[in-house]
Amino acid sequence: MEEFLQNYGFLVVTLLQQSLLALSLYFPLMTGQLSLASPGFYALGGYIAAIMLTVDGCAGVRDYLGWAIFPLGWVAAGIVSAVLALLVGIPALRLRGIYLALGTIAFVEIMRVLFLNMEITGGAIGIFDIPQLFEERWSYILVFGPLLIATLLFIYRLERSRIGRAYKAIREDELAAGAMGINATRYKVQAFVIGAILAGIVGAMSAPFLNTWNARQGTFDASVSYLAYVLIGGSRSLFGPLLGATLLVALPELLRPLKDARLIINGVVLVLASIYLPQGIVGAMSRLKRSLFKIYAARGDDK
Amino acid sequence: MDAVQFLQNFINGISIGSVYAIFALGYTLVFSILGIINFAHGAVFTLGAYLTYSLAVGRFGIGGLLADLQIPFQFSFSVSLLIGSILSGLAGVLVERCAFRPLRSRGADPLLALVSSLGVALVAVNVIQYLVGSEIYSFPSDVYGDIRPAFVIHFGEKLVVVRTVQMVIFAVSLLVLALLGYMIGYTRIGKALRAVAENASTASLLGINVDRFILYTFFLSGFLGGMAGSLVGTSFGIAGPYFGVSYGLKGLAVIVMGGLGSIPGAVLGGLIIGLAEAFVPSEYSAYKEAIAFAFLFAVLMIRPQGFLGRSQMQKV
Amino acid sequence: MSIILHAERLCRNFGGLQAVDAVSFSVEEGEIFGLIGPNGAGKTTLFNLLTGLTPVSSGTFNYKGKFLTGLPPHRIAGLGIGRTFQNIRLFKGLSALENVKISRHTRTGSGLVSGIFGFPASCREERLVEEKAREVLKLIGLSERAEELAGNFSYGDQRRLEIGRALALDPKVLLLDEPAAGMNTAEKQNLTAFIRGVRKQFSLTVLLIEHHVPLVMGLCDRVAVLDFGKLIAVGEPADVQRDPAVIEAYLGAE
To answer: Is B114 an 8 Å CB contact of chain A?
Structure first.
């Protein structure tokens, strides 16, 4: 076990982390919104944690709190992300489809340029030598793991609740949902904010894990990766993003020669998945299940 | 800022703005025909730059698989630009085949086309990186042959520098826009394109081969994208295979400002953003990159259909 | 009889086109009020104005005395105006039961936290929603197919389901946009009886867009006729049918 963790610990943590980021995309998708904003909040969360952990001004607080500064960073990241997401989301989510996607792209780029140029974020160099929560890299499983489980539970309960039903209606037909009494904008913003909070918290957790943090953590390319995870895994089931992230992160690692071609693989996956598997693997599996079921049921009738 | 500096900024702004305009037109053409954004446009931009470079300089680049591979021929700049753009047009057609046609035949959601084109872009850019490495490529300063690289105009003690490449860009842009405007407004092909853009099913009922015109559109779009990339490449150098990404994204800001699907809007949007960037005071030059996106966001908030676009009406 | 819905010089223009042109009328509580007119006369647009889906260019309308002009659709639905759509806008990927449950949204209030953590109030509410939804499905005769995806239903059944979904809103006013489209004679008769039935059972007021003139004449208490966005006649079916302006607009019945 020890050896496995030593060799593959980093990979497992990365898997958990990327799954969480894919899930941050899942929330807006539940309301039918394609948001590419997660990297902006991820970077923001990371910077907040990094600043709290390295800046001299916070040294007093750090000494007082000890290791508790880390969870405090997560909470701070979540709160700031929520506020920013509200400010950005309320106007942005009145937009539909492609306009929203473009708006979130703009948001990420603006954040990136800001981070690249502000003093407090360390400019182009970023922040480095971020204190570690654990000695071993693989110990971060203890941080990302519970968050992933909690998120999955949250989504599971959400999908079966009144609010989740509203989300589904909005995704199916926003106009009709409105005519049936659902305030679509309110729920779209809510889903967007939840996704942003998740991305922010993951960022705050990732900063110590990765030891350095700079503006390259929050780029358009990252959104493309998360999109690939959700698309290949399936955007309609909570296991979809998980499956997609696992496949697209683990496979290149385990097949050495593929590792360098990781981005090309992501690209090819995006193309093939959008053409042949628009419902992702999970969706295709459930379609397969349903058609198999129909075949069995039909055969039963023949008897 | 005094008059001389204003003039300098203005010239710089118009120059880069016209490149933005040409590039944005590639997006606009595809959007007006298919109603979707071709996210592979930035990759074609990149491809065009590298192609023109190789043709003009006579060899593939410094790094990557094809490092130092000599090409048996070498062309003057204008010919390289033309060939590079034509090849980019063909690349555009290839993109249509791979990313868009299969989705069209399945009647898929337009957002999937966006995703698919993103995939193609990712593959293309990384293949380029694999083939020619990620170092910076600069066009040699004698690429224009005998013409001087820059002209200096004196206003008393101050001076305004007009780089030859800026004049080339402006001249080429004007030419391309004029030709495009003529083609779309006055030729049969142009009329057919407009018909398909207006209503594809009616157009096909009228005997127009919609698929073929979609191909023409993508060729044209790729041509414009490759040309824009080549012009930027000669102007600022090629900073690596990813240099098209920020232009690709900025192009989106241009078309949203101008109005999705509006050709004059793309030109207007390009010039506005170009000028806005040029007039950013030097203390804030680091934030120049964010201007286009700030504009984009602002436009989306205030008037999503842009300056010259039509309001999106939803049919209930 | 009191007036439950009143429109005052409602206008809607798109660019140069006057889709609805200064339309004024009143609907009495408990009426079945028909809305007829040639294609493109503006009937569906009028419905869209009354339900807030399309913003009003000018004019007002009120419901039970309360001005609804400018309110968003979800507020209008919450106040008790339900509708169906000309082109059927069911939530095709959701089951019939879920489609109907959606309409209970404005009659319930459990939020994100209580839904996630399963507070007792929320669970109770969900049970009530389920009960009410199943009642509605029984009313429209689709109980056995509650779990089936709405997209798999036949055209006629989809229309029934859409009416059921609107009824689940507990509306006081029901707007039906061509509910009989694509139905044969028997189905039309069933629909007529059904509308009369629910009107009585739930004390509804019904506004009905319909092309099939005999159905309208047989079912409606009063009829309004639109042509090119203008209201050209309002009154009892027999009177309207004889009105020369109406005859001219239609050039005879269907």
So the answer is: yes
Return d(Cα B98, Cα A228) in angstroms, integer: 17
Answer for the pair C115, C207: CB distance below 8 angstroms, yes or no: no
User: How far is residue B184 from each of residues A24, B15, B27, B214, C115, measured CA to CA in Å?
Assistant: 44, 24, 16, 14, 57
Residues C43, C252 contacting (CB under 8 angstroms): no
Do residues A180 and C89 touch, judged by C-beta distance below 8 A? no
Mutation target to probe the C interface, by most C beta carbons within 10 A, among A31, A174, A180 is A180
Residue C195 within any structural domain of the chain: yes
* Nearest-angstrom CA–CA distance, C15 and C92: 33
Distance separating the N- and C-terminal Cα atoms of chain B:
53
Question: Consecutive sets of 10 residues in chain B, 316 residues long: mean pLDDT of each?
Answer: 84 91 92 87 93 79 67 75 92 92 82 86 87 78 66 78 82 85 82 78 78 89 93 83 86 90 88 91 82 90 81 55
Q: Do A109 and B293 touch (CB under 8 A)?
A: yes
The domains located in chain B, with CATH, are 3-302 (1.10.3470)
Contacts of C117 in chain A (CB under 8 A): 157
- CATH number (domain holding residue C39): 3.40.50.300
- List, for residues C186-222, the tens digit of each pLDDT value: 889 989 999 999 999 999 999 999 988 888 888 999 9
Domain of residue C225: give its range. 3-80+171-250
Residue type, C11: C
Beta bridge partners of C81: C173
Is A113's CB within 8 Å of B286's CB?
Answer: yes
- Which secondary-structure segment (H or E) carries C177? strand C173-177
Are the beta carbons of B294 and A220 separated by less than 8 Å? no
ipTM of this predicted complex?
0.92
Measured CA to CA, the distance from residue A275 to residue A253 in angstroms comes to 26
Q: How many CB atoms lie within 10 A of CB C131?
A: 11
